[in-house]
Design a protein that fits this description.
The chain contains three helices and no strands. It has two domains: about 30 residues; about 40 residues, no CATH class. It is elongated and about 35 Å long. It is mainly α and about 70 residues long. About 5% of the residues have low confidence. About 5% of the residues are buried. It starts with a helix and ends with a helix.
Length: about 70
């Protein structure tokens, strides 16, 4: 027969496993650096051709967001 503490620990382990699984899925779906770099370069070219101000960091973050969906 399990005590209340054993049930809590068991539940906590289940939550921890679920969190690790979610984190792993996010990492697997994360775009690689080359993909981000190419998209950021594309965004940079579009931005500068349109005469819009911005920074390479802005292009990088926008590329990451776009590729992650």
């Amino acid at each position: 027969m399990k005590t209340e503490n054993e049930n809590t620990v068991s539940s906590s382990k289940g939550k921890l496993t679920a969190r690790k699984s979610l984190k792993r899925n996010k990492q697997e779906n994360a775009p690689d650096e080359v993909s981000i770099r190419l998209k950021a370069n594309e965004l940079y070219n579009l931005r500068t051709e349109a005469g819009i101000n911005g920074t390479p960091d802005d292009d990088w973050y926008q590329a990451e967001k776009y590729l992650r969906g």
